[in-house]
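Long-time lurker, finally posting.

We've been working with SusD/RagB family nutrient-binding outer membrane lipoprotein (Runella salmonicolor) and I want a structural starting point before designing mutants. I don't trust myself to interpret raw outputs, so I'm hoping someone here can both generate the structure tokens and explain anything notable. Sequence follows.
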Amino acid sequence: MLKKISKSVLVLAVMLVASCSDRLSEINENPNGIDPATANPNLMMPEVMNNAARSYLELGYGDVAGVAQHIQHDGWFSGINHYDWGPQDWSGWYNMLRNNEFLYKRSTELNYKFHQGVALTMRSFIFGVITDLWGDAPYTAAVKGDQSNEFLKPAFDSQEVIYKGIIADLKAASALFATKDATGYTAGYDIFYAGNPTSWQKFANTLLLRYYMRVSDKMPAEAKAGIEAIYASGVYMKTPADDAVMNYIGATAGNSWPGAVAFDQEQSNFRRKKPAQTLLNSLMANSDPRLKVWFAPVYVRWVADPTLATPVDEFIRKDGVIMQGTRYLTDVVFNAEVKKGVKFTRHYNPKLYTGTLDTNEYVGVPPGLRQPDYYNNNPTPGQTVQNQHVSQLADVYRGSSGGLLKARLASSAETAFILAEAAQKGWAVGTAATHYNAGVKNSLETWGVGSQYDAYIAKPGVAYNNTLERIMEQKWIASWTAATEAWFDYRRTGLPALKAGQASAEPVLPVRFNYGDNEVNFNRTNADAAINKLETTKHSGLRGKNSQWSKPWIVQGTNKPW
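Top reply, 14 upvotes:
Generated this for you. Predicted structure of SusD/RagB family nutrient-binding outer membrane lipoprotein:
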């Protein structure tokens, strides 16, 4: 993939020059560059796909994973745990769109149906992320700066217009892929599906399901008809093999899983990311087999000991024997010892200790704590070393490539849960129980524990019970590392019933990103018009309308999520 991306960088350089042509009276031709008029669309695809996949993962494994309460941080935690966000720039997403627009134009000129379908699908995905996160945004006037000066400060379109445009583009992409015409495709340049039009059609149709359900409260008739039509076609993601994923190759930091210890000598980015208590408790309540795939047991487990003369042991115990003078070990040492089967504990006397300790084998950090690095009587607060009394991510997430480390843009599990919700609404898409069970099974298979499906689905806390709450809880769990969908589902339904923590900037979860300073300062008229259409709430605070707690069109008038 590195070779493919390095070639596409040459194309990107040309495109960036071309995008500024309205400011120049003349562009000199570079004899060593690639002429945009003869550029090969294959070289552009991996650049767009790679950037979109990495950026989407970094959202769903970062700030948004904090909102969805999949993770918490115990260092550098305010944005993750408390949502005290400032203005957030979207230029990275629009840069992807510029590259993608060039891909679409060249594909159209060459009549390459497959490449046109890829460009339309990726345009829909990227614009979908933008409007989902921010609200109204430049759409019909976007990425046209090379055409006229008037587009240098583009007008914002409403979310309604953008969502309708996304749906139209995805329908067009699906029709192109249905021809199965892959003329012009060169093997090795499609890093998602290796040039398979049918797989891309499933991806496009699954995105259609996503966005029909997204607008189902605002456009119920269109959503119902659209979802029923896709279900009737039978062309959508049904198994994990259909998922839209990008593998990490691990050769460099830029092509490695975020927080990979190979590129983080102090391993701080890895060890500061902790499971949120909300998710961990849900997994433990039903002995979820994904628990051990995603998270590690605590290094040092608390043990109640009424005979202890002091409230807590000062020193840790190794296989029951006190290590005099040793209050903690480093992550590297702990990890090596635990892999040998060594058990570390600390004792406390419940009669003398006045606080609360979590004595479980797996421990998550409650959302929104003021000082999460102190949680569970951590002897090393202040980011000295890892909290030995709280779980870390499983060892697989220390790595940089291979196996489970994939950026996932859409999945068969998500698809099944969407259809389960649609069926529960009474739409003609089969039975809710069938789709719900498929969603659970697909997620377990994705994470390598499909053999435990029968035992898991039979648990009272997992078995389908004819409620939307049950569907959304399992969909929320299945969105691990892709938490953006969990956030937008929560925003739309209020489910799961997540609660902001004690030190969160507001007592409710945010519903959007704030428009960035570039737009507010340099495209003020259009940005102000979009900001004024946001619905101010009692939680909008000092930021006023351009706040993460001001409601965009998609949830205005719905009383959701709060």
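Before you design anything, note these points.
Residues 113-134 form the longest helix (22 residues).
Confidence is low (pLDDT under 50) at residues 1-28.
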